[in-house]
Each structure stands twice: as structure tokens, then as C-alpha cells.
Amino acid sequence: MERRTFLALLATPLLLPLAEPLLAQNVRSSRKRNTDKQATSRYIFSQAMRQARADGWHKLSVGEAMGQIGLLFVGTPYVGGTLEGEGMEQCRIDLTGLDCVTFFENTLDMARIVKKNKYSFEDLQKEVLYTRYRGGVLTDYTSRLHYTSEWISDNVAKGVVQDMTRELGGVIFVNTVNFMSTHPQYYAPLKQDETLQAKIGAIEERINATTRYFIPKDRIVNIESKLQTGDIIAIATSKEGLDYAHTGIIFKDDAGVAHLFHASSQKKKVVMDVSVSEYVNSVKSHTGITVVRPTNVA
Question: What is the pTM for the complete model shown?
Fold first, then answer.
């Protein structure tokens, strides 16, 4: 199946009776709309796996497979907050809209299951749960790896990724995270349960006690040639209380340009952007990057 055909298939569900409520505001309840999104996400996933099988992406490295899967999602709308919802914490997957985290997370986890020759939506759910939650275990809202710093350290420990930053010339990342504990009003579960605030505060303390590395923005251009397709990029920020403001993956083109491939809140969709050095240097509050590389799956 050609990529153009796949993109047409992604549009198709929005025209089916199954997915009509996604376009009709105030017609169905939020629960019904969520059900339709789940069905559409399963459809999108099945078409991606169909492409992966047809093109033999299980023979690629995880990073290269991420690049190919990512290309299928170019133009997908930017939608934030898809991991949130009513009730207890759930491992939610919504492929109808992606933010910067769910874009790299889903491309990584889809590539990992393809490498294992597994192609069911249930396989994806298990992989996402493993990478999204501390130690691969979902208990409550605080078990989700909310801070990118902890997502990196936890997934390094699990063997999912390798932190390349220091090897690429990174320096110690002097940074304090406390945004969630000092701004609980922005997080519904924290507003509703003060015990969760204490848990988040303890997690922040652990993060702050670890040594982390980043590549300052003025040095990124010097290491771009060493980046590979599928490398996960976390963009550090000067905003108080936060570690990283944005994430994406690298896509190396035939000319060797290390493009930032990401779900852009500014462009409102998944895009293949300019080089990562150009992108980071275009935003004043961006201070540098941390680079983690997906490990190959046996």
C-alpha cells in the first residue's frame, strides 16, 4: 500500500457512520464520542500495521521503523489532553489527534511491537502501558511519567532507550522541577485529591536529586550529523518549574539534514519541520536538547 493510499484511509473513518459524531458537536454524549474515537483509533492503527507488514518494517531498526510510521501521521491534527479523562487513571490511546508526547510515544511503541512481529491493538496497549508508567505499572495518576526527565530515566532503566546526551557532548542540566506540585490547579486529579499532590512532590524531589545532561542550543548544530532517524528529542526550557517544553523525533533526509519531526501546537498538526538546531534556536525560552535513542528489540 502506498503512503498516499494510507493517508486517504485515515480520512475515510471521518466519513463513516461510525465516526460521524466526531464532527457533530453537541449531538452525542462525551462518552459516546470517546467510544467513536477509540474505534477510529483502532482503524487507523490497523491500517498502519497493514503498511508495516506489506513493507517489511520489522526488518528495520526501531528508529528507522519510527521514521516510517511517523510519516503515516503527517497532517494528523494536534490535540492536547488526550490522556486525561473522567474517573480513575487509564492507559488511553487516541490516534485521531496527537500532541508532542503522544506522537513520539505512539511511533516508538508501534515500532517496538512491529519489531516483535506483533500487530494487534492489544499489543500496542501493553507496550504503551510499559513505556508510559513508572516501571511499566499503572496504579494511579502519579504512576504516569509526567515529567520527561523521569520518562527518560525510567525507560533507560527498562532498556527501551539509551540516553546519548553525554556521549554527544552534553553538559550537566541544572534544573529544578516543581511545576505540578506548585500549580495543582492545572491538573484535575491533583485538585480533587490532595494526597496525590504529596506524591507528585516526592517524585519531583527524586527527579531533582538525579544528574541529568543536555546539549546547549548553541552546540546542537555541531552534533546534528551524529543524530539518527528515530532519536527522541526533549527540548529543555527556561520556564520555571519545568524541565522540557516540547518533544519530537529526528528524521534524517537523504541530504543528511536532521529534521525535527513532531506534533506542532503552532502548526496544529504533525509536521516534518526544519533542522532541530534551527527549530530550537528560533525560540528564546528553549535552552537545549536531551537526546535518547531507541534500543533495538530482539
Answer: 0.90
Size of the chain, expressed as the number of residues it contains: 298
In this structure, how many other beta carbons lie within 10 angstroms of the beta carbon of residue 240?
A: 10
What stretch of H or E contains 216? strand 213-216
* pLDDT tens digits, 183-240: 999 999 999 999 999 999 999 999 999 999 999 999 999 999 999 999 999 999 999 9
C-alpha grid cell for residue 62?
A: 526501531
The ranges assigned to domains in the chain are 3-294
Neighbours of 255 (CB within 10 A): 5
Is residue 37 within 8 Å of residue 96, measured between CB atoms?
A: yes
> What superfamily would CATH give domain 3-294?
Putative xylanase like domain (1.10.3670.10)
With cell 541529568, the residue in question is 212
d(CA 157, CA 131): 11
266 CB neighbour count, 10 Å cutoff:
9
What tens digit of pLDDT does each residue of 73-97 get? 999 999 999 999 989 999 999 999 9
Query: Measuring CA to CA, which residue among 13, 8, 35, 41 is closest to residue 124?
Result: 41
Q: Which residues pair with 244 in a beta bridge?
A: 236
Handedness of CA 71, 76, 79, 85 (dihedral sign): negative
Using DSSP's 3-state secondary structure scheme, residue 148 falls into helix
